[in-house]
Amino acid sequence: MVDHAGHPVRLASPPERIVSLSPSLTELLFALGSGERLVGRTRWSAYPPEAQAIPSVGDGLDPNLEIVTARRPDLVVFYHTPANAAAIARLDDLGIGSLSVRLDQLDDVDPAVRLLGRVTGDSVRADSLADAFRRELNRLRRRSFDVRVGALLLAWDAPPIVIGGGSFLSEIVHLAGGRNVFADLRQPSATVSIEAIAVRAPDVVVLVEESELTVAGRPEWETITAVRERRFVRVHGSEFSWPSLRAGQAVAQLAGALSTGSP
Amino acid sequence: MTRWLVLIAAVAAILLGAVALGPAPLGVGDVWRGLTGSAEGPAATIVRDLRLPRVLLAFLVGGSLSVTGAALQALVRNPLADPYLLGLSGGAGLGAVTAIALQLTSPWAVPVAALVGAIGAILLVYRVAVVTGSVLDTRVLLLGGVVVGAFAASVMGAIMALSPAPEVRNALMWLLGSFGRASWQAVAVFAVYAVIPLSMLYGLARPLDLLALGEEPARFLGTDVERTKRVLYLTASALTAVAVSLSGIIGFVGLVVPHAVRLTWARLHRALLPAAFVVGGALMVIADALARTAFAPLEMPVGVVTALIGVPVFVLLVRRWAS
Amino acid sequence: MGELIVRADAVWFRYSGAEADAVRDITLSVAPGELVGIVGPNGSGKTTLLRLVLGVLQPTAGAVEVAGQPVARWSRRGLARLVGVVAQREEPMFPLRVDQTVLFGRYPHLGPLGAPRRHDLEAVQNALDRCDVADLAERWVDTLSGGEWQRVRIARALAQEPKALVLDEATANLDIRHEMEVFELTARLVRQEGIAAIVVTHHLNLVARYADRIVVMDRGAARASGSPGDVLRKDILEEVFEWPVAVTQWGGVPQYVPLRRDESGADRAATP
User: Fold this and answer.
1) Do the chains contact at C93 and B223, CB–CB below 8 Å?
2) C135 — contact with chain B (CB < 8 Å)?
3) What count of Cα atoms within 13 Å lies in the side-chain half-sphere of residue A107?
4) Which of B86, B171, C2, C268 has the most neighbouring CB atoms within 10 Å?
5) Pick from B74, B210, B225: which is nearest to C107 by CB?
6) What whole-number distance in Å separates Cα of residue C119 and Cα of residue C126?
7) pLDDT per residue over B100-155, tens digit each?
C-alpha cells in the first residue's frame, strides 16, 4: 500500500497510537471512530470538541519532531505537501510509520477517508462514510441556479488577499449558488490589487470569521460597491477552514446567508 | 533651465501613463474621461478614486524617500545611507505588527501604530547618539540605528512567532510595502504633512553641501554644525516615518536615486534635492504600476519591484563610480 | 572692530576628564598685517589653542576675542566671513569640481536662497588665480594630487575674502615649490592687503623667515614668544624639542639644524 506521497505504508498491524499533524485529518480520524487512538494533534485541531482533550504537539507544518516522538506514536499522519518530506524522512530513520494524505479539494475527501480507513483497520466504516459523502456531493453538484451571486472571498484586507479557484472554498461557494469572482485564479489564495476587485464587481463580500469593520472603514475600499453598500456575508465554523465531511453543512450555511444577504 | 522643463515633462508623462495602466482593462478614452471628470460609472471610479490617488501617493512617497536619502547621505557622510538606516523601519514594523497581532479594528490603527513605532525608534536612536551636551555623533547615530532596528526586528519576530498563523503572513506582506491603501485622504494627509519637512530640507541645501565635506570644514565655512545635524536628522526621520506608516517599507529608492542624480544631473543640493524628488517619485510610480500590472490581477509588493530595479541600477552606478 | 583681529588673554583649557591642562595661560594677539607662527612638538597644545581661538572650544579660564568681540558671540557665519581656515587633511566623500569647491568659500556671504552674484564669481576666480589652480578649475577633486588639493582648499579659504587666514599644517603635503608659493602668497596677502595670518606648522625654519612673531609651545604653555631671533635659540629649541640642534643664520634670520648623534658636542654652527 502506498500513500498520496507515493511513500509505502509499513504497518504490521493497525496503529494504536496515532499523531495527527493536520486538523482536517484529525477530524476524519474521529469520524472513523479512531479518536481514542489519537495521542497527539496540532494546536489548530479544533474539531470535533473532543479533539481538545488530546495533547497538542505544536504546529503541523514543520513539526517539532521531539514533541511528536515523545508521544510514542506508531503512526504519524501528515497533510500532503512537499514541505513535510524532510520530517517524513526523519521518522523513517526512527522507524515510526508515516502517512501523507492529500486533502485540498472536496474531491479529495472520499479517497482520504478510504485511505485512512484502510490504515486504521476501519475500512467498512470508511467506505460507508465515503459513499454517503460522494452521494451528497453529487446531489449538490447537480443543482442548478438561475442566478449566481458574485462573491468575493476575502481572507485579509491590507494587502487584499482573496481566495482563488485553487481552494475548496471556491467550490463551496459554487455549490451554494454563488460565483467566486476570482475562480479563474489557480492558487488557493492570492494578493490582488483593489482595482482588480473593483473591476470584477462582486455582489457580496464573504468573510470567514473576520470582522468586516476593518474593510468598511477604509476610503479606498469604498470604491467597491459591495463594500460601500455594506453587503457582507459572514460564515462561521471550521467546516470553512478545511475540506471535510461537513461540506454539505458549509454549503447550506453559506446558501442561507447568500439568499438572505444577512451577516 | 530647459533641462528642468524636459525632466518635468517626462515625469508628467510617466504619471499620466501610470494612471492609464492597471489590472482593470480600461481604454484610453475611459481614462481620459475619468481624469477630466466628465463621466460616472465604474471606470471613472477606478481612475479617479483608485488609480489617481495611488499614483500621486507613490510619487510623493518616492520623492520624499529620495530627498531624505540624499540628505542622510550627506549627514552621515556615507554613500550607503538610506532613510531606513536609522532604525525607524524596525520601529514602524514593530508598531504595525503589534497592531495586527492585537487585531485592532480601526482602519487607521496600523498606520498610526507604525508611526508611533517609528517615532519611538527615532527618539531612542537620537537619545543614544547625543553623547555629551547636545552633540550628535553621526557614527553613533549609524550604529544606534542598526542596533535599534535589529532589536525591533527581533521583538517583531517574537510577536509573529507567537501569533496565529494568518496574522503572521499578513504582517510580513505589510512590511514589504504597498500603495494599495492609497486614497485621497491618505494623499491629502501626506501632502499637507510633507510640505514642512521638505521645505526645511530644501532650505538646508547649502549646509548639506558643506556638511558633506566634513564637520570641521563645514563649521569653518559658516555652518552651525550641531543645529544643522539635529534639524536634518529629525526632519528626515519625521518625513520617512509618515511615508512608512502609509505605505510600508520600500527600499532602494532612497539609496539609489540620490546617486543616480548625482552622477547624471547635479551634485550640489540646491539642484540635487528637487531633481531627486522628481526622479524618485517617477521611479516609485513606475515600480507601483509594474507591481499591479505585471501579474494582474495579482499584485506584487512594490518593495520587491524597487529591489529588482534598484539592484542592477546600483551595480551600474558602482561600476561607473569606480571607473 | 578693534585693532586686533585675534586676541587670546590668559587662556587655559582642560579637556573634560583629563588630568592635565592642554593649554596653560596663553596670551596671544594677532593684528592685521601680521604673520604669527605657532610651533611646538606633537601634543604641545597647538591644535587645541587653534580651536580655542576659532571658538570651537570654550576656554576654562581666560578670554578669546575675534575682531573685538568675544568669540562665543560670533555666529559661525559671521566668523566664516572673517576667518578662513585651511586644515591639513580633508577627505571628499562626494567629489566635486574644483570651481564648485572654491565657490563654497562664498557660502558665508550668500543668503539661503540667493544665487552667486558677479562679485562672488570674481572672488572665486581671483582665489583660483592667486593659488595657481585656475587651470584645474574643471577638474574633479578626486583626480588631484595631494599638493593640488591643498592649494584648492587654500583658494577656497581665500574666496571667503577673510580678514584672517589660519593655516593648520596646511603645507604638509606640498613639494618645495608649492610650499614656498603658499608662504609667499600668505606673506604677500599679509603685507599688501593687511590680512592677519596664523600659521601652525612643523616647518620651523621656513616660518621663521616669514613670521613677524613666533610662539613656541611646550606642554600647553608658551615656552617662548617673540620675534624669530628671540625664539630660535639653541637652549629653547633643545629644551622644547628634546633633541640637540645647532643654530645658524640665513639672511638675518636664525635657522636651526638638528644634529646627528655623532655630531652632538661638536658644535659646527658659527654664530655671528
Assistant:
1) no
2) no
3) 5
4) B86
5) B210
6) 10
7) 778 776 777 888 888 898 888 888 888 888 765 667 788 888 888 888 888 888 88
